[in-house]
Write a structure and sequence with these properties.
Layout: E1 7-15, H1 19-37, E2 40-45, H2 50-56, H3 62-68, E3 73-78, H4 88-100, E4 105-111, E5 129-135, E6 145-148, E7 156-159, H5 165-182, E8 189-194, H6 202-214, E9 221-226, H7 227-236, E10 243-246, H8 248-261, E11 269-273, E12 281-285, H9 302-314, H10 318-334, H11 348-357
Parallel strand pairs: 1-2, 1-3, 3-12, 5-10, 8-9, 8-10
Antiparallel strand pairs: 4-5, 4-11, 6-7, 11-12
Helix pairs in contact: 1-9, 1-10, 1-11, 5-6, 7-8, 9-10, 10-11
Bound molecules: 3-isopropylmalic acid (IPM) and manganese (II) ion.
C-alpha cells in the first residue's frame, strides 16, 4: 500500500461493450470525491480493447506497457468482444497486464449493500461482509503445459499448477496484514482455502507457509477450509468469514459464487494489486462487457464505482473511499429498485449523479 502522494495518476481503460459507460461514472464519482477530499487526480485514457484489436490486430503494445508502468492505478471497464474468439483478449490484455505488472493480489470484497437482493434466504447485509484475497500470478494461470497427438484418440494434454515459495509467502503475508488492518469488530480471522487432502505438494506448501506466517500475527485467528467445503459454508453461513486467502484458480471460482451472494455482477468489484511502493495496480468491475446493453444507459455502474473506492482505499485515501461506499449504500438502500440492467429505476448516468450528490 502506498501513502497519499500529491497527485493520483490514473490510467483509464474503458475497454469493450458497456465498459466505457460504467467507467465514465466511476471517473465522475472519483472527480467529485477528489474535490471534497482535496485529492488531485489526473486521468489518461487508453484505447485498449476488442474494437481496436479487430481494426488493427493490436491488443496491448509494448509501448503501452511502458507508459502504464508510470501509473499507480489503472481503472478498467470490461474486456470481451462478441466478434473475438473467447480467450484471446482475456489472455493478451487482462492476464498480460496482471503478469507484466506483477499484480500478485486479487482483492475481492464481498459485501451485501442495503436494499440489494441476495439469493440466500434470510441473510442480511450484516451476514454477508467478507473479503477474498486471491493469489493472482501463479497456479494454473502460468500457461505452463502442452499437448501431443492433438486431435487423435491418443491425445495427451498437461496443464501445470505452479506454486513458488516466494509467490505463496507474499500473498499470505499480505492477507494477514490486510486482516489485521480490516480489524473486524466480530474478530479478526483469516481462513486458508485450498485442497490439501488431494493437492499434497502444492497446497502442502501453501499450508506450511500459512502456519509459519501465522506466528507473526498472534492477533489474527486462523482457520482452514477445503475449497469444496468452503462453497458449502459460504452459502450456508457466510457470516462465518472475515478474510479468505486462496490460490488463483480456486479464488477465481469461489469469487463468482461470492459475487452472486452479494447481488451479482452489477455490484461485485475487484482489485489486481501490486503492493510494492512503485507498483501499478488495476481495478475492475467483475461483470463482463454486456454487449447487448451497450450505449443504452441501462447498465449498472455500482461495481465500477466500488472498484474506484477500492482504488482510493489501496492508495491510502481511506476517508474518500468510505465516502463512496457510504454513498453507494445510501443509493442501493433508498433509491435503486434493482441491481439488474434496465430495472434500476434510473439510468446509468443518473445513478452516477446520485452517487456524486450523496458523497
Ligand atoms: C476473473 C476472470 C478472469 C480470470 C478471466 C477473464 C481470464 O474470470 O477476473 O475472475 O480467470 O481470472
Ligand atoms: Mn473469474
Amino acid at each position: 500500500m502506498t501513502t497519499p502522494n500529491n497527485k493520483l495518476k490514473i490510467a483509464v481503460i474503458g475497454g469493450d461493450g458497456t465498459g466505457p459507460e460504467v467507467v465514465d461514472e466511476a471517473v465522475k464519482v472519483l472527480k467529485a470525491v477528489g474535490q471534497l477530499e482535496k485529492i488531485e487526480m489526473q486521468f489518461d485514457y487508453f484505447a485498449i480493447g476488442g474494437d481496436r484489436y479487430l481494426k488493427t490486430g493490436k491488443t496491448v503494445t509494448d509501448e503501452e506497457i511502458t507508459q502504464l508502468r508510470g501509473y499507480s492505478s489503472i481503472l478498467l471497464g470490461a474486456i470481451g468482444h462478441p466478434d473475438v474468439a473467447p480467450g484471446i483478449l482475456e489472455k493478451a490484455i487482462l492476464l498480460r497486464l496482471r503478469f507484466e505488472f506483477d499484480q500478485y493480489i486479487n482483492l475481492r470484497p464481498v459485501k451485501l449493500f442495503p436494499g440489494v437482493e441476495t439469493p440466500l434466504k434470510d441473510k442480511k447485509p450484516e451476514d454477508i461482509d467478507f473479503v477474498v484475497v486471491r493469489e493472482n500470478t501463479e497456479d494454473l494461470y502460468t500457461g505452463i503445459g502442452g499437448c501431443m497427438k492433438k486431435g487423435t484418440p491418443d491425445e495427451v494434454a498437461t496443464q501445470t499448477a505452479v506454486y513458488t515459495r516466494k509467490g505463496t509467502e507474499r500473498c499470505i503475508r499480505w492477507a494477514f496484514e490486510y486482516t489485521r488492518k480490516r480489524n473486524n469488530p466480530k474478530g479478526k480471522m483469516l481462513t486458508l482455502v485450498a485442497k490439501t487432502n488431494v493437492l499434497t505438494f502444492g497446497h502442502d506448501l501453501w499450508q506450511r507457509t500459512f502456519q509459519e506466517i501465522a506466528h507473526e500475527f498472534p492477533d489474527v485467528k486462523t482457520d482452514y477450509n477445503n475449497v469444496d467445503a468452503c462453497c458449502m459454508w459460504m452459502v450456508k453461513n457466510p457470516e462465518y468469514y472475515d478474510v479468505i486467502v486462496t490460490t488463483n484458480m480456486f479464488g477465481d471460482i469461489i469469487t463468482d459464487l461470492a459475487g452472486m451472494l452479494q447481488g451479482g455482477m452489477g455490484v461485485a468489484a475487484g482489485g489486481n494489486i501490486n503492493p510494492e511502493p512503485n507498483g501499478c495496480s488495476m481495478y475492475e468491475p467483475m461483470g463482463g462487457s454486456a454487449p447487448k446493453y451497450t450505449g443504452k444507459n441501462v447498465i449498472n455502474p455500482i461495481a465500477a464505482v466500488s472498484a474506484a473506492a477500492l482504488l482510493l482505499e489501496q492508495e491510502g485515501y481511506t476517508l474518500a473511499a468510505q465516502r463512496i461506499i457510504k454513498s453507494i449504500m445510501f443509493i442501493t438502500g433508498h433509491k435503486m429498485k434493482s441491481q439488474a440492467a434496465g430495472k434500476m429505476g434510473y439510468g446509468t448516468r443518473e445513478i452516477g449523479d446520485l452517487l456524486c450528490e450523496n458523497l
